[in-house]
Amino acid sequence: MNNRRRIYISLIIFVIIYLIGVVGFKFFGGKDWTLLDSLYMTAITISTIGYEEVIDLSANPVARVFTIVFIILSLGTIAFAVSSITAFIVEGELKNILGRRRMEKEIARLKDHYIVCGSDETAETIIQELLLTRREFVVVEPDKEKIDRLVGLGNLLYVQGDPSEDDVLLKAGIDRARGILLSLPTDEANLFVTITARSLNPRLRIVAKGIDLKSHGKMKKAGADSVISPTFIGGMRMVSEMVRPAVVTFLDMMLRDREKALRFEEVRVEKGSPLSGKAIRDAKLEEKTGALLVAIKKADTADYDFNPAGDRKIEEDDVLIFIASAEMARGIEKIAGES
């Protein structure tokens, strides 16, 4: 039985015991006792205060027995109610403290994770995608009620606090993070956190939401690597839905399939990787992982080889772009990073 239910039950029992007392004392008091007298006697008996009785019941043995039994029942009911309330408060607080410490330990062990700031619909979409693709991340949000709503999306780590404050971002592990996604209510808030985040981790990748297109340049000057406009993306989606509906449907199927969860993924070929210098056909990445290689971004350039030929050699720092599930992407990362 949980503590909340115990409290409800103890309150119900208390009301029943109180009514029994009122009815009993009225019965034994007879015509000489008013309802108020019975309520009074019941109250002083339950509370064990011991004020003077309205009418002396000592001459009535049955009434005395009733009073003894009633006192015992009252004490038991009060003890049960007090223990239930105490357990609810103490265990609830203890659970919160232990849960918070456990979460802090989990956040402390994270490395190359992501931080999500905000709780609006855009942030919810970001969180759902990170959960679906099994990325490690921490949510930063000052409002507890909004955090509770986000927790309903799945098992996630969070820090309650203002993301514009250094110590809050440090609690989220920003010095060890791979990137931060900013979806705060205003462009000013996103701009301020961009500056704060860049100062705490110069290597961090920052992706910010920009509501006003005029603010995008300022955010990039402040340190954002990319600024996304929800209205621009929405407009592009509407045009695509009109002129290339089959493509949009295909991409939607990729994004919404909960079992396969295919995505366009990228993996960088690390220095000393066994893939370095190998031709694509010899690497046999599709055979080993099931992922489909669709392009290669050439090292240190902005050029892409789309649908690369089998004899194309893979070089260090090339970025391989695949259509793959989360498991396939992890497999490719392992191959590309081995030395």
Question: How would you characterize this protein structure?
Answer:
The protein is of the alpha/beta class. The chain has 3 domains: 3-105, Helix Hairpins (Orthogonal Bundle), CATH 1.10.287; 110-228, NAD(P)-binding Rossmann-like Domain (Rossmann fold), CATH 3.40.50.720; 262-337, Alpha-Beta Plaits (2-Layer Sandwich), CATH 3.30.70. The protein has 13 helices and 10 strands. The strands form 2 sheets. The chain has a 6-stranded parallel beta sheet, with helices on both faces. Strands 7-10-8-9 form a 4-stranded antiparallel beta sheet, with helices on one face. α8 (216-222) links the parallel β5 and β6 (226-228). The mean pLDDT is 85.
- Give the number of helices: 13
Q: Per the principal axes of the C-alpha atoms, what is the gross shape?
A: elongated
CATH architecture of the largest domain: 3-Layer(aba) Sandwich
Number of domains: 3
CATH fold-level assignment of the largest domain: Rossmann fold
- The named CATH superfamily of the largest domain: NAD(P)-binding Rossmann-like Domain
Q: What would the average pLDDT be, to the nearest integer?
A: 85
Uncertain residue segments: none
- Percentage of residues in strands: 5-15%
Oligomer: single chain
- What is the strand arrangement across the widest sheet? 3-2-1-4-5-6
Distance between the termini: 55 Å
Largest sheet: 6 strands, parallel
Name the structural class. alpha/beta
